[in-house]
Amino acid sequence: MFGYSCDNKDGNILIFIMFIYIL
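Below the sequence we write its predicted structure tokens.
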């Protein structure tokens, strides 16, 4: 997702926060 590896949960959380922040 978004070119990031889904193996790192911390990375997914950061992406999730960024996604909501954009919205």
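The chain has one helix and no strands.
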